[in-house]
Amino acid sequence: MLPDDTRKRIENITAGTVIEGPSDTCTTIRNLLSASFATSTTVKIDFEGKSVIKEEQAQLLEKYSTENNLWVTDLPGEDRFLTRGGEARVYLAKDGKNVIKVNDAVYYATWLEFFNSILLHNLIFPNTAYSLVGFTKENDALLAVMKQPFIVSDAQVEIDNIKKLLAYNGFENTRRNDYLNKELGLILEDMHDENVLVSSATLFFIDTVFYTVSTISLQS
Questions:
Q1: What residues does each domain of the chain span?
Q2: What are the tens digits of pLDDT across the range 95-104?
Q3: pTM of the entire predicted model
């Protein structure tokens, strides 16, 4: 079960409130965005309509990056390229212990939704927590440069084990590889055997997509 302090921080994220106390760069960026923009409690609705908001948020992030030296100019070369997922190019970091993910946040209607998802991942799956390296731009599009531990799988993950672990943390399987936590107001999607790895009999969730939803609507 998730500890009480973790649940409280999750509740702050879904409520759109600023997370108090010491914070990492991901939390700082999320707080910056949440101070000016509302957290969405609808899922995959009106992506096109929210494109204006996403662009406004991108401009805010670009300004912040310039003021705080967060522009990344030394991305890994193609010799360190590992794979490409739906929203990110993945490279092996120079230290060989981490991966660098260059992410365009295409699965999210806004940048706030993206960073909410990152923080939710870090709270629920701390053994594969993301850190923000900074931002870059390609073809005038803003990209987030993230770092995450590099996990080498030593066995094939069993879907039933994924379901059991998520159920222990309050997530019910709604369809195929998608899950819902009604109490916390969270949707977790696409938890298949490419996004969850197993090493030394431990599950590592390496790619997650979280959305916040209204707990009131879920209970009605």
A1: 4-68+80-149, 159-219
A2: 999 999 999 9
A3: 0.94
